[in-house]
Amino acid sequence: MALLIKNGEIVMVGARERADIFVEDETISRIGRNLEVPPGTETIDASGKLVFPGFIDPHVHIYLPFMATFAKDTHETGSIAALIGGTTTYIEMCCPNRNDDALQGYELWKSKAEGKSACDYAFHMSVTKFVKETPGQLRQVVADGTASFKIFLAYKNFFGVDDAEMYQTLRLARQLGVIVTAHCENAELVAQLQQKLLSEGKTGPEWHEPSRPESVEAEGTGRFAAFLENTRATGYVVHLSCEPALKAALGAKERGVKLYIESVLPHFLLDKTCAEKPGVEGMKHVMSPPLRAKKNLGVLWSALDRGLIDTVGTDHCPFDAEQKLLGKDAFTNIPNGIPGIEDRINLLYTYGVKRGRLEIERFVDAASTRPAKLFGLFPRKGTIAIGSDADLVIYDLDYHGVISATKHHVNNDYSGFEGMVIEGRPAVVTVRGKVQVKDGKFVGERGRGRMLKREPSYF
Ligand SMILES: [Zn+2]
Question: How many whole angstroms from 144 Cα to the centroid of ligand 1?
Fold first, then answer.
């Protein structure tokens, strides 16, 4: 199966050129002007359109038992939504809880994706306790091609690790050459503040943010950095949401701590007033770290544009309105999460690139190239180069639309970004040379996605 993409303008980190791309056997074999191709080659005319490397979402939840329920997507629905939005690879958090066996959890998470995902995928392995079996189990997981871990400083007694467990995990990660991603909030402060607020009769979703204020995240970020500093491991803060946490992370980087920063889509576009809406409307906007005071949004955009924030993920995690209502009597029972897997690229492009907040090559870097580099997928993914997988997004700059749950493909009855305008969307999306999406429709092969095996590289 050969494919020619003609006349598009390729946009990558450090390069922008008009050229044709020829694909054979799933990978890019030639790039140049006026390529001669064999008869019968499928040809797509990309005149007037941009061609990006397939986008990578470094932080999603598809299968997730959490807060007495399950996130709504399957790999079938989640991957189709991802592809329609231009994401050709996602990295899912494999999240067995403290009471689960880690290896059984890992196999369970893999089984949910295998043969179901229409895009390629990988996992971050959560370490939710550190017991005597843990080092051997984690070595097996790394040998299986999952070369990144996740720890939670939050969610005490469920996903959360204590400081001793964090130290052990980072020491092992350092030995294994594995990067450790971390949810940085102080679990004890969150637990105490939640109880205080509830005891004062403050039960609505508007109290979620005050139960985990910016200082709680800044403390978690700073503590994670200190543990990295003293173990010489490499870390990655997930979903950094506010200026005090950013300062803690950047201060650590200045001292030479090996630390990378991710922020996620909702924190660039939504603020805490969304979660202050009464009833279920507010609950739909509950995630952790919470949506913040509006002044943080400009800080995050600026840091992203300057490359101080490395990557943009989504923390995609769909719970529907009925599930959100589990928290109608106490905000502590609202399942945390906002879906975003389908909207990340179009919203970043519209509100970042088009509005002049984000330089276009940095956009490609943050949403594709840097996640590929940080998580061992480069140059197979994250670039348009000879030998790379032909994951390509042909982007239509003339498209105008409005985000709505009535039209989206995520398996959820609301969108966190309802009513927002988008100016641009993928016209064609390929995964390893096969057209999977055309003009907002999935036209490809279900279950075609492969688990991407990754080598440790942080030695
Ligand atoms: Zn997450």
Answer: 22
How many Cα atoms occupy the beta-carbon half-sphere of 60 within 13 Å?
Answer: 33
Distance between Cα 33 and ligand 1 center (Å)? 42
Centre of ligand 1 to C-alpha 70, Å, is 14
| Rg, Å, the chain Cα set | 21
Model pLDDT for residues 187-227, shown as the tens digit of each residue: 999 999 999 999 999 999 999 999 999 999 999 999 999 99
| Residue at token pair 């498209």 | 399
Q: What pLDDT is stored for residue 93 in this prediction? A: 97
How far away, in angstroms, is 145 Cα from ligand 1 center? 21
Omega cis (within 30) before 379: yes
What's the whole-number mean pLDDT along residues 229-257?
A: 98
If you measure from the C-alpha of residue 184 to the centroid of ligand 1, how many angstroms do you get, rounded to a whole number? 11
Model confidence at 157: pLDDT above 90: no
Distance 181 CA to ligand 1 centre (A): 10
Query: How far does residue 341's CA lie from ligand 1's centre (Å)?
Result: 12
Q: What percent of the chain has pLDDT over 70?
A: 100
pLDDT band at 135 (very low <50, low <70, confident <90, very high): very high
pTM metric for this prediction = 0.98
Tens digits of residue pLDDT in 259-277 = 999 999 999 999 999 999 9
* β-strands 87-94, 311-313 pairing: unpaired
Q: Which of 308, 307, 261, 263 has its CA nearest to residue 289?
A: 263
Q: Distance, CA 202 to ligand 1 centroid (Å)?
A: 26
Distance in angstroms (rounded) separating the CA atoms of residues 274 and 429:
32
CATH classification code of 54-374: 3.20.20.140
Rounded to the nearest angstrom, the distance between the alpha carbon of 207 and the centre of ligand 1 is 20
Domain ranges of the chain: 54-374
